[in-house]
Amino acid sequence: MRDLTNSRHMMLKAALFGVIGLGSAGLLLVESLSLRTATLLVLTIWSFCRLYYFAFYVIEKYIDPTFRFSGVFAALRYLARGKKG
């Protein structure tokens, strides 16, 4: 599979992810409308965003600037093995 290089396609992909995320969150809140559900949903989204930031920015910029991650599994392998693995 080729890398996505067209900026319009990248923007479409981002928009589709937004639609999926907002739709899923909306359906969860409709199914179980409560302050607790909304709070847990916000905390879940926020924490995974911070984990993603850590995996792809903090590790690459501050912990090991020589390593380039190709995806989530590469980051997990790196964390499991350590710098020398």
Give a structural overview.
The chain is mostly helical. The protein folds into two domains: 1-33; 42-85, no CATH class. The protein has helices at 7-31, 35-63, 72-81. The chain is flat. The mean pLDDT is 85.
Q: What is the distance, rounded to the nearest whole angstrom, between the alpha carbons of the first and last residues?
A: 27 Å
Task: Output the helix-strand order.
Answer: HHH
- Can you tell me the number of structural domains? 2
Number of distinct beta strands = 0
Average pLDDT works out at: 85
Weakly predicted, low-confidence segments: none
Shape: flat
Q: Any descriptors?
A:
85 residues, mainly alpha, 2 domains
Concise overview:
By secondary structure, this protein is mostly helical. The chain is 75% helix and 0% strand. The two termini are 27 Å apart.
Element layout with pairings:
Layout: H1 7-31, H2 35-63, H3 72-81
